[in-house]
């Protein structure tokens, strides 16, 4: 994340905030409020040059090999959209007139490739259908602007169907500023304007290049290309002073809203009191721990090996390159943490006799001390392996070529598990998914945790989960694919499957293939039940009488009849909204949070372009053992029941739709 200031408490690792779906909206907003507070405090102290924070990254995590997927909220557009709104509102503050900081949603749009098989992001032409743009790639950016009120959108390096994003008037002026109503500015990604000519050969001269970007609606070039060539572009008549003035107005308007021209920032009525006491505060440290805990996903827990009883653990072995490496807790953009607790240090807070062995020379694991690891494992009461990836395998500029654990990691894990007295515990620190089929099926590996890159409190968070001081509630925000998925070219942008050619599709919404773990997977130490509550209350079903008089058209893609969302209109869509109630119960034995996910399913998705299923929303509820609660989901048919046609238009199909929570379904009939 491109930050204009260092934010000490919050390493901006991508997986730390969105690592799992668990009370995502409120958790993210609280975290970002803390980040925004600290940014303002540092600015007031004279330790930051600006207040524009180029974050969040809300690109869809389309391919598991993408090095920057760890920055994003995952593969689902609903999750990414809610995350985007919470992120922006947290950073920018609650004032309608004065910004705490300025957030920038990036990288619009359909950007998710760094360097794969000789294809690099600087000149990649993403061939994207209007359908996929409408229902997958664009929704998070739309939500950023319309609901979050983001003051900046960053255009990507990517060419979209032959037109560079940062030179596309259709994208920047028509969509961002026109359709969505951006009240702010559009920035290029760094050096993207120079690359229009140098890498993409989109225009012949530097002056033509600067002109096409500014005329498209670009306001700010990250880099100096417009500074160097802007005056000559004016002198040659390639652009006008009005083009420059349009950009300046947008830029200075945001600066005014930040208070840049109001004198000493410490005199600001809203934010002037923020200072050193607001950086690394106890409340923010506690929030870092809460965020890390909420992001941990329990993927396997055979025979209830977890949680551990510290009084029953005479000795423990901590094996793995990620066990005692503070850098392993951070993603590829982060500020200096106030303090760091590694997983090894976390374990040592619960067990006195802990022995440590890195096992691998690095995450690449070209060398593995397998013999030493086996000896240590066989002499220890419990064994916890801390394995996974690092920023040398996945980061900006680096895509993976394999989904397997690197080098000799798998062999080391298997050998240690075979030698251990009891089933081992595997903790994975990764941003992206990995194919750990071998561990999932190995009875000697009793438990698997995924912690993402959990930030400064990650080691303590992991230990608290291992020893039962926190009951895990996280859910996977991405599909975990098998290694065979790497046969699919990263350059194929299609989301929908094509069975005729063997193309499997992408994400839980469209993928037709085997998985290692599914989107939304995640276990708890407690048993929870949830069910949709039936009601005869007519206000708890959509009032489809409102559709009387609208024309139901017949589609060419499957013969379905549907209603245009545009024709229903804003007022009609509001009137169609209805509540859906889910009753959830904690059957014990532990207190804990439960993340309830509601999906929409259609009777038939084959050959229709419909998703297999689609997330409606998610809620998290803390329940004591034995306690019940009712959770209400606000369902909007125009949003949640709609699908995108091939031309990108949103429609609602007539007939049956099914709300799904776990194995429980409720049919909603949609016709006038």
TrEMBL record:
<dbReference type="Pfam" id="PF14310">
    <property type="entry name" value="Fn3-like"/>
</dbReference>
<dbReference type="InterPro" id="IPR002772">
    <property type="entry name" value="Glyco_hydro_3_C"/>
</dbReference>
<dbReference type="Pfam" id="PF00933">
    <property type="entry name" value="Glyco_hydro_3"/>
</dbReference>
<dbReference type="GO" id="GO:0009044">
    <property type="term" value="F:xylan 1,4-beta-xylosidase activity"/>
</dbReference>
<dbReference type="InterPro" id="IPR036881">
    <property type="entry name" value="Glyco_hydro_3_C_sf"/>
</dbReference>
<protein>
    <recommendedName>
        <fullName>Fibronectin type III-like domain-containing protein</fullName>
    </recommendedName>
</protein>
<feature type="domain" description="Fibronectin type III-like">
    <location>
        <begin position="594"/>
        <end position="665"/>
    </location>
</feature>
<dbReference type="InterPro" id="IPR017853">
    <property type="entry name" value="GH"/>
</dbReference>
<dbReference type="InterPro" id="IPR001764">
    <property type="entry name" value="Glyco_hydro_3_N"/>
</dbReference>
<keyword id="KW-0326">Glycosidase</keyword>
<dbReference type="Pfam" id="PF01915">
    <property type="entry name" value="Glyco_hydro_3_C"/>
</dbReference>
<dbReference type="InterPro" id="IPR044993">
    <property type="entry name" value="BXL"/>
</dbReference>
<keyword id="KW-0378">Hydrolase</keyword>
<dbReference type="InterPro" id="IPR013783">
    <property type="entry name" value="Ig-like_fold"/>
</dbReference>
<dbReference type="InterPro" id="IPR036962">
    <property type="entry name" value="Glyco_hydro_3_N_sf"/>
</dbReference>
<dbReference type="InterPro" id="IPR026891">
    <property type="entry name" value="Fn3-like"/>
</dbReference>
<keyword id="KW-0732">Signal</keyword>
<dbReference type="GO" id="GO:0045493">
    <property type="term" value="P:xylan catabolic process"/>
</dbReference>
